[in-house]
Amino acid sequence: MFDGKKILITGGTGSLGQALTKRLLEMNVSSIRVFSRNESKQVSMESKFHDDRLRFLIGDVRDLPRLTTALEDVDVVFHAAALKHVPLIEYNPFEAIKTNVIGTQNVIEACTKQNVGVAVGVGTDKAVSPINAYGATKLLMEKLFVTANNYLNPSRHKTKFFALRYGNVLGSSGSVIPKFTEQSKMRQKISITDPAMTRFSITMDEALDFILESTSLAKGTEIFVPKLKAYSIMDVKKAVEDINGDHGHEVIGIRAGEKIHETLINNDEMRFAWELGNKYVIFSPFKNEDYIKAQYPKIKKTKNLESYSSNEVELLTVNELKEKISKSAF
Question: Which of 197, 187, 186, 189 lies closest to 236 in space, CA to CA?
Answer without folding.
Answer: 197
